[in-house]
Amino acid sequence: MIELHGRSVIVTGGASGIGMGIAKVLSLAGASTLLVDRNFEGVQKLSDSLEGIHVPFKADVTDVKDVEKMVS
């Protein structure tokens, strides 16, 4: 498995499905993540279940203002 210690990754759709799966694999590889989804409770729950630094963030990636907040 690739080592991602010291790397930060933005994961969209992190509350379920493929996004959640990607976040779990990135966590195992040592990456820190910004877990983004419209479902804040879902990404909060995922964040709490992962080891390392994983920050939940509520955003709709189809909304420009939400995306600007996410990357600022």
UniProtKB/TrEMBL annotation:
Q: Which UniProt keywords apply?
A: Oxidoreductase
Keyword Cell membrane among UniProt keywords: no
Q: Which CDD domains match?
A: SDR_c
Task: Name the SUPFAM superfamilies for this protein.
Answer: NAD(P)-binding Rossmann-fold domains
Name assigned to this protein: SDR family NAD(P)-dependent oxidoreductase
GO MF term list? oxidoreductase activity
**Transcription: is it a keyword of this entry?**
no
Query: Pfam families attached here?
Result: adh_short (PF00106)
- Spell out the PANTHER family in the cross-references: 17-BETA-HYDROXYSTEROID DEHYDROGENASE 14-RELATED, SHORT-CHAIN DEHYDROGENASE/REDUCTASE
